[in-house]
Amino acid sequence: MSVIRVTDLDLKGKRVLIRADLNVPVKDGKVTSDARITASMRTIEHCLKAGAKVMVTSHLGRPTEGEWSEEVSLKPVAENIAARLGKPVRLVKDWVDGGFDVAGGELVVLENCRVNKGEKKNVDETAQKYAKLCDVFVMDAFGTAHRAEASTHGVAKFAPVAAAGILLMEELDALQKALANPARPMVAIVGGSKVSTKLTVLEALSEKVDQLVVGGGIANTFLKATGKNVGKALCEDDLVPTAKGLIEKMAKRGASIPIAVDVVCGKQFDAAEPAVLKDANAVADDDMIFDICPKSAQELVDIIMKAGTVVW
C-alpha cells in the first residue's frame, strides 16, 4: 500500500492540520472516557516534537451544520489535551477562513468541524478552505475514514501534501496483514447506527470473512431483513433489501451474518425504563430494541472464541 506517512516528512516550521477522531463522551463539561484522545496523541506529539505548527480538529456529537453550541464544543477535549501536554492549548472557534496564527511547536484545537457548512456533504469550497490553512494535511481518524467529508476526504485533494497519521497507519497495516493471509475462521465485527454509512465496508468484508457480526442500529436492519419485527427500533427500511442480499450472498459460500435470537426491549429510550428480555420473534410494534440477550451474546462468544482472525 503506497501511502505517505507523517513520520516520513520534515515538518519543521510547517503548518500541519490533523483530522483526528476525538469524538469522546462528555458529561458536565468533562471527558468521561478519553481512549480516543490517548490514541490520537502519538501523532499530535510527533508533529509538535518535529517543530510543526499544529492544528487538530474533530467532530463531536451530531451538530447541525451552521449551529454551534456548548454541547458540541471541543472545549473539554482541548482541556484534556492541555493537561496531558502540561501547557495551555488554544481553542479556535471560527477557523475555516483562517485569521489566526500558530507558532512552531504549538498546538491549537479547531472547533467541531461538523458545525462547518459543507462539511458533511464534502463540498469542495469548504475542503479548499481547510487546505489553505496547512502545508501538510494528516488524516488520523480511522474511525471516521469511511465517511467522505470535507475534513476526511475533500481536504486531502487540495492540500499541498496529504499524509496518514500514526494511528491510521497502524490500523491500515494491521488490516492489510489480517486480510492478506488470515487464519480461519475469519470474523469481522462492524458496529454503528446505520447500514448506509458502513455499506462499502460491509460489502467488502462480506466477500472475505466467514462470519460478519453486526452490532448497534445496523443489527436491527439485518434483523428486519430476516422477517422479524423490530418495532420502533432504529432501522433503515430502505436498506432492508440490501441487508437481505448480503445475508444471502454470504450464505451461498457457506458464510454467515449471525442474527439475534433474543433482545432487550423497552417502550422508550430512558435510563429508568425497565429492560424486558424477549425472544426476537416477540418484539411488539411499540417496542424499542436496546441490546441483545444472553443467548445471542453466547452465540457471538462462541463464534469469536473459535475464530482464527478477528477484525473489529
Name its key features.
single chain, 312 residues, alpha/beta, Rossmann fold, six-stranded parallel β-sheet, 9 helices, globular
Strand order, largest beta sheet: 5-6-4-1-7-8
Average pLDDT: 95
- Radius of gyration equals 21 Å
- CATH C-level class of the largest domain is Alpha Beta
Portion of residues within helices: 25-40%
The helix count comes to 9
Instruction: Please name the CATH topology of the largest domain.
Output: Rossmann fold
Within CATH, the superfamily of the largest domain carries the name Phosphoglycerate kinase, N-terminal domain
- Largest sheet, if any? 6 strands, parallel
What report would you give on this structure?
The structure is a single chain. The protein has 312 residues and is an alpha/beta fold. The protein folds into 2 domains: 6-169, Rossmann fold, CATH 3.40.50; 182-311, Rossmann fold (3-Layer(aba) Sandwich). 32% of the residues lie in helices and 18% in strands. It contains 9 helices and 14 strands. The strands form 4 sheets. It has a 6-stranded parallel β-sheet, with helices on both faces. Strands 10-9-14 form a 3-stranded parallel β-sheet, sandwiched between helices. A hairpin with a 2-residue loop joins strand 2 (26-27) and strand 3 (30-31). The radius of gyration is 21 Å and the shape is globular. The two termini are 20 Å apart. The mean pLDDT is 95.
Outline:
With 312 residues, the chain is an alpha/beta fold.
What are the SSEs and their pairings?
Layout: E1 15-19, E2 26-27, E3 30-31, H1 35-49, E4 53-57, H2 75-85, E5 90-92, E6 107-110, H3 124-132, E7 136-139, H4 150-158, E8 161-164, H5 166-180, E9 186-190, H6 199-206, E10 211-214, H7 217-225, H8 240-252, E11 262-266, E12 276-279, E13 288-292, H9 294-305, E14 309-311
Parallel strand pairs: 1-4, 1-7, 4-6, 5-6, 7-8, 9-10, 9-14
Antiparallel strand pairs: 2-3, 11-12, 11-13
